[in-house]
Amino acid sequence: MFRKNKRAVNGEQANGKLNDDGTLINLRGVQKVYETSAGTFTALRNLDLTIQRGEFVSIVGKSGSGKTTLINMLTGIDHPTRGEIFIGGTAVHRLSESEIATWRGTHLGVVFQFFQLLPTLTALENVRLPMDFCNLYTPAERNERALHLLELVGIAEYAHQLPNHLAGGQQQRAAIARALANDPPIIATDEPTGNLDWHTAETVMELFESLVAQGKTILMVTHDDDLAARATRTIALADGEIVNEVRRR
Question: Which of 83, 146, 148, 193 has its CA 20 to 30 A from that of 34?
Fold first, then answer.
């Protein structure tokens, strides 16, 4: 229905087609050290991790265990102090800030706990924004696709409402629609249901499960053990290291 304009990103095309060997994400010896007023803090310690295409991975651990730092490494929001991060063949740790922004726009959808919708844009305009930024799809198709995605998450009737006129669950659904705007192969989420009631959280989880069934790879930081258990794989962190791992199917 919608055809992306092709745009080169470090030798890859912006159509989300990555490596065909099944390995989508590969972290090798990743370390992250922060210098703070209280001294040096090591958030990740020589972490090795491989994630296959189509996995639904939940990331759990106590506060300060390194969960959010790991997501920030995977999305290029932050850089490792040491180590290598390869996603779909791209050496993410070597990209400049401008290259990361372009790469992220076509390969990753990010869903934050606090939505981070632009307050002066309608829900539809927020969803359209990644397509505008990456110049994907024709201009005529962008509004059509944005509305289609809002329908997918069940809030098409609020397409022309500003975020402050939407309930928390509706804002989160709009944020998920925005994350899907450029049809990225990977969705990364940090506590996506943390501010939602049980019913809305269930709807979000069902949507994630349907996306995985369609071939998306989802990485989800969560403190909720019940939600974590619905992923196909759970990685437990403590003090910046993987201390346990469970595969379900």
Answer: 193
